[in-house]
Structure formats: C-alpha cells, structure tokens
Write a structure and sequence with these properties.
Order of helices and strands: EEHHEEEHEEHEEHHHH
Largest sheet: 4 strands, antiparallel
Strand content: 15-25%
Helix content: 40-55%
Structural class: alpha+beta
Strand order of the largest sheet: 6-7-5-8
Radius of gyration: 55 Å
Length: about 325
C-alpha cells in the first residue's frame, strides 16, 4: 500500500487490541480551509464511525461436573435352574433336584392309585352303602340271626330325580301329588327337615330325567330335573337280617332307577345281572319286624317285577308302576330312624 503523501492525513484506531486504519485524503489549499475541513472530517467520523465498546465478560464458571459412580447389580433371574453350577451352592442344588424328583414320583403314585380305584370301582357289582356300629350279640356274623345291632349308619348317595315342588305342609304336597297322578304320572311326597318335597320320577342320569320332565311339562305340570343327594341315615335297633337288607337296598334302588329311567327315555336297557341275583336274595327274606324296612323291601320287589313285565309285554303302565314303587322307596328310606 502506498505511503500517505505530505498532504494526506491518516488516522489509526485500536479496538479490542486490533488496529484499524482510517484514511482520508485532504487537499490543502489554505490552512484556514484545512482547519475547517479537518474539523468537519473529525465530526463526520464521530457520526459515521460510532463503536459500541464491549468489554469482554469474565469467563463464566463452568458448572461443576457431577461425579457418577458405577453401581453394581445382579440381573434378575427369569427361571430358576434345577442344576446349580459348580461351587459352594452345588450341594443345595442337587438336594433340591432330588427332592423335586421324589415329590413328583410320590404325587404320580397317589394320582395313579386314585384313578385306578375310581375306574375299577365302576366295574364292581352292587356294593353295600351301609356300615354297622356298636354291634350286639350275633349281629354281622349271621345275617339271618335274630340278634340286634345298636345302630346302622347308611351312607349317602346321589340319584337324578324329577322335582314337582316344595311345600311347608304335608297336606298341600299330597294334594298336588294327587293332581299329578290323575294325569297319569307317578308322584310321592318325602319329608326333609321341616319341608315336604314332591318327586315325580327317578332316573340314571339327569339327561334322562329331563326327557321325563319334558313329557310332564307338555301336560302343563311344572317340574324340573336335578340330582338329589341323600345324606347319611342312622337307623337304631335293627336285627342282623334287617341290617343285611339295608346294606343292599340303596344300591339295588339306584340300579332299578337307572334301568327304568333309560327305558322311559326310549332306550333299550337291560337289568343288570347283579341286580337279578340281589333281588332273588331279597325275595327269600321273610317279613321284618321294622315296618319301614318291610315297606322298603316290598317297594323294591314291586319295582323290579314291573320292569320285568315291561320287558315282556311293552306295556307303558308297567314303567309308571315301577317309577311309583321307586319313589315310594325313596320317601320311606329318607324317613328311616
């Protein structure tokens, strides 16, 4: 850059340590004029070049860095291993494994035993539903003896039935029963606690009971099918022969109900061979001293004979009679004391 001449003026300004050069060429003709022009130039400079003096700000203190510490943690184990790794816990792992295997074997044996007895029991012949307690002389040794047993507890059982109502008075229940019988259907009243239940049929399954119930509904009789549970019954002062009969009575009743209910549902059912053998034994028994037990015996014989007659002649009335006899058996059985 050319140096300024003799008649040239140069102004240097430092801003923030940086030197800036300002030049203005002035032709001097007269010192007075020069003075005026110099003053004008300085004034123009002040107007045109106004600088904002910005002082450097002190450096902001940097935020103190937070110290982060590493945290050690053990990830969650989703599944427990049966076999522990080698080390101090290996014994516990093996013990747990052996214990688990032994437990599984025991549970399997128990379930197998239960299932075996559950299925094999169905193939067995008619079983006794009673047990003798506090036996007297000769009871339980000779079923035909005249000895006495203090008490006989009859086990509970379930049977599908057709229920036609529950009443608070026996008279009202018997009135409704008579109306049902007038329409050609069986009916019997059984007292349970302080109430009187009216039943109008028995069966082997609830589905078969529903078939009978629908026929009654078609005749405007309000009924429904259900499973009835007879609880344990304790009978006092029965003889050895009476106890023998009672032990067989309930199982025979259930099988006769199953056969008659199946026949009423339109199925071709046959009497179980075990029932036939039991009925022959019951028919050979003489009359019992206990009137209720004697009535139970007659009900079973009547029901069995009616089913046999239906199988021979196909008369539907025989099935109705069989059902009535079985309902009367149930009513008397529940009233034993």
């Amino acid at each position: 850059m050319d140096k300024p001449g003799k008649n040239e003026a140069s102004i240097r300004i430092k801003i923030n340590g940086e030197e800036k050069e300002f030049e203005e060429n002035l032709v001097v003709h007269d010192w007075k004029e020069t003075k005026k022009e110099t003053a004008a130039a300085s004034e123009a400079l002040e107007e045109d070049e106004s600088f904002e003096w910005v002082l450097p700000e002190p450096e902001q203190e940097q935020e103190e860095l937070k110290e982060f510490k590493q945290i050690s943690y053990v990830p969650a184990i989703s599944k427990k291993s049966w076999v522990q790794p080698k080390g101090p816990n290996r014994k516990n792992g093996l013990s747990n494994l052996v214990f688990s295997i032994a437990t599984a074997i025991i549970i399997g044996l128990v379930l197998g035993y239960v299932m075996l007895h559950l299925f094999t029991s169905k193939a067995e012949p008619v079983n006794s539903l009673g047990r003798e307690e506090n036996q007297g002389a000769g009871a339980g040794v000779d079923a035909k003896s005249d000895g006495k047993t203090t008490a006989l507890t009859l086990n509970s059982f379930d049977v599908p039935v057709i229920q036609a109502g529950i009443f608070t008075s026996e008279e009202a229940a018997k009135t409704t029963a008579a109306e049902i019988e007038a329409k050609g259907f069986p009916a019997s009243v059984a007292k349970q606690g302080e109430q009187y239940f009216l039943y109008s049929g028995t069966a082997g399954t609830v589905e078969e009971a529903k078939v009978q119930a629908q026929k009654m509904k078609d005749q405007q009789i309000d009924v429904f099918a259900k499973t009835f549970s007879a609880g344990e019954i304790k009978v006092e002062g029965v003889s050895g022969q009476e106890a023998s009969f009672l032990n067989e009575a309930a199982p025979v009743f259930l099988l006769l109900s199953e056969t008659s209910g199946s026949l009423l549902a339109g199925n071709d059912a046959q009497l179980d061979a075990g029932v036939t053998d039991k009925m022959k034994s019951i028919e050979q028994m003489g009359d019992f001293t206990n009137k209720q037990i004697n009535s139970l015996k007659k009900n079973l014989i009547h029901g069995y004979s009616a089913i046999e007659n239906f199988k021979k002649n196909g008369n539907a009335k025989e099935l109705r009679d069989a059902q009535q006899a079985l309902l009367d058996f149930l009513s008397t059985y529940l009233s034993l004391n």
